[in-house]
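User: Hey, my collaborator sent me this sequence without any context and asked if I could get a structure. I don't really work with proteins. Can you help?
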Amino acid sequence: MGGGMPRENLLIILPFPEDKAITENIRKRFPYVDVKYHQLTQTNWSFEAEQGLPKGCFKPREEAESSLTQQSWPDLFKDTTILATFGSFPSTPEDAPNLNLIHLLSAGIDHFVSHPLFTQTNIPITTSSGIHGPTISEWILMSTLVLSKSYKKMYELQKQHKWGTPHKDFPQASDLVGKKVGIAGYGSIGRQFARVFTSLGCQIYAYTSSPRPTPSSRADKGYHLPHLGDPDGTLPTAWYSGTTKSDLHTFLSQDLDILAISLPLTPSTRGMFGKEEWDLLSHRQSHLIHALKTAQLSGAALDVTDPEPLPPASELWDMENVVLTPHMSALTADYLERALGGVLVENLRRRESGVWLVNLVDRKHGY
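Assistant: No problem. I've predicted the 3D structure and written it out in structure-token form, which is a compact way to encode the shape of the chain:
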């Protein structure tokens, strides 16, 4: 009698057009999964202030819903068993009575932790952590070279059709060989960053909240792309850990030349870098600006600011030693293929086999 996997209804809600190659591959690979794709558009979704949703969640504006679906917003979720989205959720758990898996296309979950689905249920939540490393590492490398090679100054000379003179028009650049690179948060992003900068001759100093004293504890247990990152955790010259200010300050006192911060945003990491930390190196923005103005820091590359969007009046916009981008360092043409065709497909396969899901969120830790 029976046998096989139960029917699943996968609902994908994203503000992008459907990539039919991805959804057709899911249907072909998992014939018991019915896939429904619901597209939001940049012009017809709105944030929590308008919809009374938890921070970061979004859904279509009421006046545009009829053009997007014949269903009301709650009805979209009625039969859904698996939801894949950045931040579009049913308003209450009761609107999705059959939901048994939530897959987020983001690495972080800070936009979701106050939602009733997070606080009032035990529905498994997985993230797309592990896909961002290549793109963000390339962004970090680009930003590091822009700052260390004085590229902004040389570009201004180019626009003026001026050749320029070393030492007079721009300082002598240094290379990265032998530089000490600190990585606060040694997850998939930090590990790929370590791989790239190790190849340039840098020494890696890792920092994590929990100690990693054994080879097995240093291994990457999350999803990661093949042949990338540091899956065995062998690249760091030194590994620091802890959750106190003293622990963090010990790490920051290692005479670091470059610091990359790739920590998950949780209550314990919010505001973790302030004046004391920038005195050792420097993250509250006002303290960061002071450190940049006084040359306490030679430069900063920021893809995340507080608030976002960064207000036009912020001094960061006009600082020559700052690279500033609008929270886009992870964006790549391969993003959906990796998040859906990679992580989600891997977890559907694992559910078939009855094994532990990859990138499963620990509600207690907030990531």
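In plain terms: DSSP finds 13 helices and 13 strands in the chain. You can pass these tokens on to your collaborator as they are.
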